Amino acid sequence: MAKTKILFFCQNCGAQSSKWIGNCPACNEWNTYVEEVIHKESPKSFGLSGNSLRDKIKPRLINDFELNSENRIDTSSEELNRVLGGGMVAGSLILIGGEPGIGKSTLMLQLALKMNKIKVLYVTGEESGQQIKMRSERVKLSSDHCYILTETSTQNIFSQVEQLKPDVLIIDSIQTLHTDYIESSAGSISQVRECAAELQKYSKITQTPVFLIGHITKDGSLAGPKILEHMVDTVLQFEGDRNYGYRILRSTKNRFGSTSELGIFEMLSNGLREVSNPSEILISQRDENVSGVAIASTIEGIRPMLIEIQALVSSAAYGTPQRSSTGFDLRRLNMLLAVLEKRSGFRLGAKDVFLNIAGGIKIVDPALDLAVVCAILSSSEDIAIDQKNCFAAEVGLSGEIRPVNRIDHRILEAEKLGFTQIFVSKYNVKGIDIDHPTITITPVNKIEELFQQLFT
Ligand code: TYD
Ligand code: MG
């Protein structure tokens, strides 16, 4: 007889306790403890029957391990490859989180169908085989190497996996899985943790990359304990604004690559399309110049892109002026407004200010500052900025225009897209080649100086 034990787990952070407590001492949340029954003698074989696999693992000298480029598996999606740091790493566990309906299942199914000559097993606990088939018709892809399994018990999944021996395993989603060794319901902390641990062992032993789709909670963090993020090698967030078709795949943890990479997709009626030149979609096309628009040359990960900042400044109709921002940190906007008011003498205190990053994408790059300031001033003065101008600099608290990293990449990208002038910090032009044939690099030092050049 297996011994059982009752433990209480915080559903927010995964902390455990032998008795129920109202306020979690670890994460300070209230009413998050739930009783779960744990079988003490859970077999250690994580469902892969037989000990043969386990016996294979022996200590080996570090010099005995061989590395070759084949350790990276091409996902046949350039965007996904880049976010993963150059393709999937054999034996890695990759978690993909995102809000419901954002397109996680579509992304994974497209991946499963597109990978050539790679045997993929797509395990789903959320949809039926027919539904998956319908989706594959919709995205107009088919493959002779993609298997679908509708199953939620990890033991059954592993017994199928042992027979099929897939090259890549996709689990949609980790919250629907359950293991027989734990008696709580699917989606609870201990189930999620145990199932993920079983999959982790499977992926490490067999060197199979495993994708886990994970749900996220209301506040945007991955459902399940933080421990899930510690267990996996890579955490990808799939995000986007529902009102726009653009979806951004961001890596927030990556043991095998950079975490500042971005993959951009567009959700169309026939699936997700990769957007390889994001600048084109992030700058709205128009014939005439309008006020309140400035273009920033930003860098996310290794990729430079130009994005459009739109601002609207108008007299506040009510006593307290409103400040609102989409895609840009509101506190940073308030700070920039304070700098404009205090250091440069622009009277914006009684004005409503609305800021928007075109395309509904969220970017964190200090080099946006100067474009934000210029968009605000342009709207406030009602003078348009020439569409062939762009900006790349940070604005400091004293109103000085500060240098940003990798300015040469920003300049090259702007030049490639046909911009004729880029405003940068005066400290950024040292040591870089300012002799560009088609783009003028204009160093600036103070906001007032730039104001003179643009608006008077
Ligand atoms: P889905 O992949 O089911 O999201 P998730 O698994 O993250 O919950 O995506 C579903 C949404 O995507 C749904 O609102 C319909 C839309 N969609 C398209 O617009 N085009 C398509 O080709 C597909 C397959 C889905
Ligand atoms: Mg889904």
User: Strands of the largest sheet, in order across it?
Assistant: 8-7-9-10-6-11-12-13-14
Largest sheet: 9 strands, mixed
Low-confidence stretches: none
The structure class reads alpha/beta
CATH class descriptor of the largest domain = Alpha Beta
CATH architecture of the largest domain: 3-Layer(aba) Sandwich
Radius of gyration: 26 Å
How many distinct helices?
12
CATH homology group of the largest domain: P-loop containing nucleotide triphosphate hydrolases
> Proportion of β residues?
25-35%
Shape: globular
Average pLDDT: 86
- Number of β-strand runs: 23
Q: Within the CATH hierarchy, at the fold level, what is the topology of the largest domain? A: Rossmann fold
Supply the key terms.
single chain, binds magnesium ion, 3 domains, Rossmann fold, Ribosomal Protein S5, domain 2, binds thymidine-5'-diphosphate, 456 residues, 23 strands, nine-stranded mixed β-sheet, globular
Describe it for me?
- This protein is an alpha/beta fold.
- The protein has three domains: 1-41; 74-274, P-loop containing nucleotide triphosphate hydrolases (Rossmann fold); 280-455, Ribosomal Protein S5, domain 2 (2-Layer Sandwich).
- Helix content is 26%, strand content 27%.
- It is built from twelve helices and 23 strands.
- A nine-stranded mixed beta sheet has the order 8-7-9-10-6-11-12-13-14, sandwiched between helices.
- The termini are far apart.
- It binds thymidine-5'-diphosphate and magnesium ion (MG).
- Residues 98, 100-106, 135, 138-139, 267, 269-271 line the site of thymidine-5'-diphosphate (TYD).
